[in-house]
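Researcher: Here's a chain I'd like modeled. Treat it as a single chain, no partners, no ligands.
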Amino acid sequence: MLGLSRQIVGTSLISLLCFTGVACLQFPRMQQQLSISKQTFSQQSLEREEKLEKSRLTFFKKIPAFGFNNVLANWVYLNFLQYFGDDEVRKKTGYELSPEYFEIILKHDPRFRLAYLSLSTSTSLYAGKPERAVSITERGLKSLNPWVPKDSYYIWRYKGIDELLFLNNSQAAKKSLQNAADWAKKHSDEESQISAMVSQNTANFLSQNPQSKYAQISAWAMVLQNGVDKETQKRAMIAIEALGGQIVQTPQGNQIKFPKQD
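Model: Modeled as a single isolated chain. Structure tokens:
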């Protein structure tokens, strides 16, 4: 009887150990499956939110501003900053909606100069849609002149950079950069004069050589100078070095050393 009890207990222990072993082996797999399901659900949720945001932007493109154009432009720009700054979500869904924000922003406030810089960076560099950035900028420029808004010549420069670096259209870039120089020359302050010189030199490089490395390095240097985030600055540095340029750090800031030959 005692032997039978020991046999039953032994069998039970063996069964329990086997069950525990199987459970331990299966548990990591179950965790992995749950994690995958959670990630899939999260991705689906993000994609759904992206579609809703796109629909919302489409709606705002159509409605009138009722005289509150600047208010609407500023509000949409704040929404864009939140969208662009959410790095974790952007890694999963991308920057596809970037130009849609600026269709609204610059329609209602074409004099919003800083918005053009954000347009160029987010749409050309991140979303990979430089043609949209250039198209939106061209429409906005029709409402501008050398004096309005302040430092408006930079907008021509942003357009020229997009055309040169991302559309490989050196002729269009040369015209835009020449316009940037011409508008800047109408101002006597130091910043405008320096900007005029930089834009003029880059346009001259392109006149002499449409494939000019000097022009491309100059354009990337402008991107580096205007870099709105560290990732943009990093990309600019890599591009400058790939073209044979060197970035020299000085107390006054980064300086670019050009290669000996263009």
